[in-house]
Amino acid sequence: MKVLTDAMLLSGLLLAPSVSGSTGQTPIDHPGKPFSYVQPRNTSILTPYGHSPAVHPSPKTSGKGGWEHALAQAKEFVEKLTLEEKSWMATGQPGPCVGNVLPIPRLNFTGLCLQNGPQCIEEGTYSSVFISGVSAAASWDRKLLYDRGYALAEEHKAKGSHVILGPIAGPLGRSPYDGRTWEGFAADPYLTGVCMEETITAMQDAGVQANAKHFIANEQETQRNPTYAPDANATTYIQDSVSSNVDDRTLHEIYMWPFANAARARVASFMCSYNRLNGSHACQNSYALNHLLKGELGFQGYVMSDWGATHSGVASIESGMDMTMPGGFTLYGEMWTEGSYFGKNLTAAVENGTVSTDRLDDMIVRIMTPYFWLGQDKDYPSVDASVGPLNVDSPLYTWLYNWTFTGPTNRDVRGNHSEMIREHGAASTVLLKNERNALPLRKPRNIVVAGNDAGPITQGSAIHSNYEFGVLANSGSSGSCRFSYISTPLDAITARARKDGALVQTFLNNTQITEEGMTSLWNPELPDVCLVFLKAWSEENVDRRSLDLDWNANAVVAEVAKNCNNTIVVTHSTGVNVMPFADHPNVTAILAAHYPGEEAGNSLVDLLYGDVNPSAKLPYVIAYNESDYNAPLTTDVLTNGTYDWQSWFDEKLEVGYRYFDAHNLPVRYEFGFGLSYTTFDLASLTGKAVATANLSALPAQRPIQPGGNPALWEKVFTLTAVVTNTGTVDGHAIPQLYVAFPKSTPAGTPPSQLRGFDKVWVPAGETKTVTFDLMRRDVSYWDVVAQDWRIPTGQFTFHAGFSSRDFRANTTASFVR
Ligand code: NOJ
């Protein structure tokens, strides 16, 4: 165990009052002339956004919402701390975990281990690789989300992590080019909000603190961090990080929405993001942290910085950030630098009165309350030594000789999770096309398996880079995993095919397929089916340059389909891909499996052979062409001013399907779409108000709780519908509810927005009643003048069906006069 001494606090940079004045706001001196590689901003639009007002002081936690007892314990603990100890606790230190708050043995505090990530224990040994975030969202299954989060947290806990750095609601998927959409959930705030809430509740039920990241408007990787002068000791920017410039209504209705669910789930911590928001760094943006998060959303836990996202001391602290990470040893751009804006500088700032003791105490109380609330002070597993060498966020030499591990190393924490992962893989794979009854397979005797994504990984089991050969079931950087085994499509298909005495021929080299063709196929007979496996990689810190599948995938499909009139395409992908091959008459079926984790092959075979009936739905839109998507990333700037990286969210609420619907644009596969081996119908949509009287337009002003005004979360309307399985196979239906707001709602309101869904098992020929409960927030828009959620007057239309473009029943209602 490492014991803290003042000398161990690494020497720091001067604690500057702030980057620019005491408000912590970084100036925007002009609206910028950004260059997006697809479409420049229309600079004739006068923007009401692009700056961020200062809001001080930082609200203090009161532990409301169920943390009151833990808060008292935290306060008692904080009373025993010295000033230096408090400063250390707010400052991450080198150690075996990705983030470390060091132990204080005299108080029996064993420290905090913060660990990535959203799909596994980052590169962890003897641990499971679960389905990815985007896969989990594609399941549209609350129970799956909960079970996944719980099991992931069980493994983290057994390896000694106190904090899981996830789940992710930002990026939300404003643009499909964002490199990290697979780590998050859906390009829709409602679905992502449900995913956040279920995952956080589950993780914390398992005793591990969750971390809602990356707050906020973190919608591109390009220029996520400033570029620094090479000699700069990390202080001189060449150009600052990109500023996401978002108007108030969009911020509330799109980007903040799922984070409100996170706060309501009483998430222990938030991670402020790398980008600037409306000109001010997210980690020193007092409007975002003090006003929105700790004020409006009533968040009671602590805000930690993303790694190296801290750009000031006092300004960040006064703006609401409570913990800097990785702290004493900080990543600036791509450069490790000793020192911290916090640490001993924080001690000095309290001593000279720049930061009040009150504020520092609140920071530590916020950090310690969830720890006590989850009982992490009692018998918590020690940190497994095996995680140390994998930690790239504080290099080994910075801590190894000061750290003593206890407990067994290389603990096997997998339990029987693989069974669940197999089920989850099948439940999250979306069937996009199925013609000529191609699926399920009926004992094919002559099978071709093609594509470099079908077989084993040939470059080690820890995922680091876009490898050519092997199935892609996870991707790179802080969300990357180590497979203790992987069920590949080739293994699983071969094992299954052997039962049928089938012939399995493999063509696993994309270059060979496209350059030499598949001539050996002509002996001895035409295949019954050709299964083509394609993949698309993307990772943190880099945005995608194309929405095509990788490794010349389109040409691979063309070649296979030329030889095989029953070609089934399976994709393992980060998210959106355009699929020019979808119209090919020989491509009879398409499955999007995203990144399904360690049971990739088995879970797919369960679907291919019909042991499981597909039920998953797209959590984003697949357009016909790349150029059909709006909201291009800012990938370059033509000017060299320090603050010139600007990303204008001019599309406002038109994110994802909202854009395509608003402009009536055709899409290949819409949001919420996915086929089954059966067919469903939905009818008799009826609604019933919870109260007999009309509702007030604005919510009653009730004391803020975690998640915000509790009146927003009150059930106001219940809809029911009847779902019938009209086919011959039992299966899960996923009925969805969309709302069209009345005409009185301000311009820019999307034509329809998801506000409910359910996953229901319906045997063939039977019917089930489904219920959608709407809360006040679901039927409100953010009124920028009232600064509140307003239910508009006039008639709402509710559409229920099986995708954002497949409505089967409608009903109307009005709520306010
Ligand atoms: C940066 C990433 O943005 C964040 O998601 C991750 O948790 C930290 N690095 C720590 O690895």
From TrEMBL:
It catalyses: Hydrolysis of terminal, non-reducing beta-D-glucosyl residues with release of beta-D-glucose. SUPFAM superfamilies: (Trans)glycosidases, Beta-D-glucan exohydrolase, C-terminal domain. Gene3D superfamilies: Glycoside hydrolase family 3 C-terminal domain (3.40.50.1700), Glycoside hydrolase, family 3, N-terminal domain (3.20.20.300), Immunoglobulins (2.60.40.10). The keyword Glycosyltransferase does not apply. The keyword DNA repair does not apply. Beta-glucosidases are one of a number of cellulolytic enzymes involved in the degradation of cellulosic biomass. Catalyzes the last step releasing glucose from the inhibitory cellobiose. Its main location: secreted. GO terms for cellular component: extracellular region. It is found in: Secreted. Residues 1-24 form the signal peptide. One of its GO terms (biological process) is cellulose catabolic process. One of its GO terms (molecular function) is beta-glucosidase activity. It comes from the Eukaryota. The lineage of its organism: Eukaryota, Fungi, Dikarya, Ascomycota, Pezizomycotina. Keywords: Carbohydrate metabolism, Cellulose degradation, Glycoprotein, Glycosidase, Hydrolase, Polysaccharide degradation, Secreted, Signal. This is Probable beta-glucosidase G.
